[in-house]
């Protein structure tokens, strides 16, 4: 189940994608970006849209917002991100590291 943000909802108003928004802050360090309010908001929205459940195993609990792509790092679209529980997030990164070693 996912949460739909209909026109006029509080979340829709807060996720303003109009040209009236100030330009995004530029970050020199990825770690600083992950601690920013901008990232924390994006991560919360991704988790809310997933119904606060892991999008792989459907579990509840601690969730992480995971990048599906880094093509727009620092300026992600919400579709660039997925909500994963800690276990699935760790498994994904372990598989990815193993694939990187085999290249």
What would you note in describing this structure?
The protein is of the alpha+beta class and 103 residues long. The chain has a single domain, classed as 3-Layer(aba) Sandwich (His-Me finger endonuclease fold). It is 39% helix and 10% strand. It has a two-stranded antiparallel ribbon. The longest helix is centred in the C-terminal third of the chain and has 17 residues, at 86-102.
Largest sheet: 2 strands, antiparallel
Number of domains: 1
Instruction: Please give the CATH architecture.
Output: 3-Layer(aba) Sandwich
**Class by helix and strand content?**
alpha+beta
Low-confidence stretches: none
Hey, roughly how much beta strand do the residues contain? Answer: 5-15%
What is the mean pLDDT?
A: 77
Order of helices and strands: HHHEEH
CATH topological fold name: His-Me finger endonuclease fold
- Coarse morphology: globular
DSSP E strands, number: 2
Helix content: 25-40%
Whole-angstrom Rg: 15 Å
Give the neighbour order of strands across the main sheet.
Answer: 1-2
Instruction: For the record, give the distance between the C-alpha atoms at the N and C termini, rounded to a whole number.
Output: 37 Å
Instruction: Give the count of helical stretches.
Output: 4
């Amino acid at each position: 189940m996912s949460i739909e943000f209909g026109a006029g909802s509080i979340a829709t108003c807060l996720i303003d994608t109009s040209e009236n928004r100030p330009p995004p802050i530029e970050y020199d360090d990825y770690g600083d970006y992950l601690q920013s309010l901008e990232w924390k908001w994006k991560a919360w929205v991704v988790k809310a849209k997933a119904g606060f459940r892991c999008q792989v195993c459907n579990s509840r609990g601690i969730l992480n917002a995971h990048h599906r792509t880094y093509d727009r790092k620092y300026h992600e679209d919400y579709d660039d991100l997925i909500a994963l529980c800690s276990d699935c997030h760790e498994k994904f990164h372990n598989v990815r590291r193993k694939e990187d070693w085999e290249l």
